[in-house]
Specification:
Layout: H1 3-13, E1 34-36, H2 50-61, E2 66-69, E3 84-88, E4 100-104, H3 110-115, E5 129-131
Length: 135
């Protein structure tokens, strides 16, 4: 397993959440919410894995609303259709299936932007999440 996946699973296990190792162990009935972190702009080769496709199919067939965290940019493919998407720090152009898009301030210091040559003026004010979709 990739080190990044192992690290994420270690963090998840600290939450007390239930981890399954087979799609057969997922519920047949709709759940309250699916949080999708499968689709991302890193490790796009995972989309070719059979377990990835099976998990995406389950999420799309479950009929539960989906919140995608840090979804891939447009043109990279998105396996799970989202009701909402949460982009981190700076907005990227997203695929059609991203749903309503929100931008989240993850606390990157202004100096980091300066060091890479980005003139950054925070749009967040006193909020940590702002909508990017039209009302």
């Amino acid at each position: 397993m990739l080190d990044s996946v192992t690290s994420e699973l270690t963090l998840f296990n600290k939450t007390g959440g239930k981890q399954v190792s087979s799609i057969k162990d997922l519920p047949d009935t709709p759940v309250d919410l699916i949080i999708n972190c499968l689709d991302c702009h890193e490790n796009t080769f995972l989309m070719d894995q059979p377990w990835y496709r099976a998990a995406a199919d389950w999420a799309n067939q479950n009929r539960a609303p989906v919140l995608s965290i840090d979804p891939p940019g447009s043109g990279q493919g998105q396996a799970v259709e989202a009701k909402w998407s949460l982009s981190l720090c700076l907005p990227l152009p997203l695929a059609e299936g991203a749903g309503r898009v929100y931008l989240c301030d993850i606390g990157i210091p202004r100096q980091v932007f300066q060091e890479v040559g980005i003139k950054y003026l925070s749009p967040f004010g006193c909020k940590f999440v702002i909508p990017l979709h039209s009302a």
